[in-house]
Amino acid sequence: MSGREFYRDTLGKIDRSAEKLGLDKGVREILRYPRRVIEVYLPVRMDDGSLKVFWGCRVQHNSARGPYKGGIRYHESTDLEEVKALAALMTFKSAVADIPFGGAKGGVACNPKALSRGELERITRRYTAALANDIGPYTDIPAPDVNTNPQTMAWIVDTYSQLKGRKVPEVVTGKPISIGGSQGREEATGRGVAICAEEAMKYKGLDPQSVTIALQGFGNVGTHAALALSELGCKIIAVSDSKGGVYDSEGLPIKDLIEHKRRTGSVVGFRNGSEIGSEAVLEVECDVLIPAALQNAITKENANRIRAKVMVEGANGPTTTEADKILERRGVFVVPDILANAGGVIVSYFEWTQNLRREYWDLEEVRGKLEKRLKCQFKRVLETSEEFKVPMKEGAFILGIKRVAEALETLGLFP
Ligand code: NAD
Predict the structure, then answer these.
(1) Residue with the nearest Cα to atom 20 of ligand 1?
(2) What is d(CA 318, CA 336) in angstroms, rounded to the nearest whole number?
(3) Nearest to 324 by CA among 332, 247, 223
(4) Whose CA is nearest to atom 33 of ligand 1?
(5) Can you give the pLDDT at residue 2?
(6) Portions of the chain given CATH number 3.40.50.720
(7) CA proximity to 391, closest of 345, 339, 342, 346
(8) Which residue's alpha carbon is at the smallest distance from atom 41 of ligand 1?
């Protein structure tokens, strides 16, 4: 699915939920469009002395509930339409998480695997300089996403602070701890996925100690979700990354698998289990499936072959609307992305709060607050889906849109 189709799909979701809520036509119209789209072209000196221009963007979707908030992704195939869809999803994710943020997203079209650390640093600093007047701790607060990490955030803090003439760590979240990052931020999204998976298991009467789990994507989200779930006693039987996957019906030792991936760059070739394809992992017979790679992994082509009872969407937009319908018909209980992977933005909110208050919370405090908030919003989404007699995915959208619409209507229109 192209970025354009992904965006159209997201708009369809907004429209359907707005319809169910009987939202005012004007408010509905506001929610369909981003408030601002900023495109930048970044001239960057490459290691071989040549000069290359990279395309990037920042899409600010909505700030009715608070400053714009959302990650920055570095990916070869990222485009404006994809980033527009992701920015809109962030608005509703912040609202579903009930934190005082709006939604935004950024992207730079590049292949980080083909770039040196120095080249990545120069791209990041140019991108920050180009957007220095558009981001800020009270306006728009970026964070990591696919192929960006705490180091990327540190370069942003440094560049932004140099340009502003003062230290501004609160301009981004997901920073390294040494420069004002929060305990538990790096693990937060994956941990949140695990918390939602646990809640879904409870709801479906599944015992965590005896469930089997398959997981697609073994990056930040996938590894931390796998770690937290294996600590709960769940058996992770299949894991894949972009190079391939590994399957063991007895359960994979997650810490060893993470170490193997750290050494070799992939889960492929792990001593335990047998090889399996990157996408084949989605079709493994298991209790809980966690797509935690990229969007549109589950389409009408493979949705009929999914054999899990519960699916927890770690990635953003991993399931197309057509696939959603198939999964619903087949009785798969889906915990939607805007709830399931909200752990990252929730702890981002904790990080921002700590920075502004000049406070440091310990890991236990962060984990406790995350768990409490996510469990509470899981319940709210479930209640909404029961009230409107819709699946969790639509329930989450309805709840998010309702909260944003309330803020928009309360604020009124200027001028
Ligand atoms: P990442 O780059 O750390 O990891 C992505 C993983 O997916 C890698 O292991 C990669 O090899 C794998 N992958 C890519 N294509 C694949 C394929 N076809 N089959 C199997 N594996 C494949 O990224 P991440 O931060 O873990 O993000 C993953 C997803 O979660 C994205 O959709 C992202 O938008 C979403 N997300 C991330 C965060 C966060 O805090 N990092 C927060 C919310 C949502």
Answers:
(1) 241
(2) 9
(3) 332
(4) 315
(5) 86
(6) 186-331
(7) 339
(8) 145
149 in ligand 1 pocket by Cβ < 6 Å?
no
CA distances 210 to 27, 196, 201, 229, 292, Å, are: 46, 17, 11, 12, 22
Tell me how far the alpha carbon of residue 277 lies from the centroid of ligand 1, in angstroms.
Answer: 16
The ranges of the chain annotated as CATH 3.40.50.10860 are 3-11+32-169
Task: Name the pTM for this structure.
Answer: 0.93
How many degrees, rounded to 5, is the angle at CA 347 between CA 151 and CA 201? 120
Architecture of the CATH domain 186-331: 3-Layer(aba) Sandwich (3.40)
Q: Which residues contact 46 (CB under 8 A, 6 or more apart)?
A: 52, 119
Among 110, 216, 220, residue to substitute to test ligand 1 (most atoms within 8 Å of Cβ): 220
3-state secondary structure of 246: strand
CATH homologous superfamily for the domain 3-11+32-169: Leucine Dehydrogenase, chain A, domain 1 (3.40.50.10860)
Q: Helices 220-231 and 254-264 meet at what angle, rounded to 10?
A: 160
Length of the chain as a residue count: 415
Under-50 pLDDT residues of the chain? none
Output the pLDDT for position 413. 87
For residues 8 and 390, the answer to whether their CB atoms sit within 8 Å is: no
Q: Which residues contact 122 (CB under 8 A, 6 or more apart)?
A: 44, 45
SS3 414: coil
Q: Any idea which residues carry the catalytic annotation? A: 105
pLDDT in tens, 60-82: 999 999 999 999 999 999 999 99
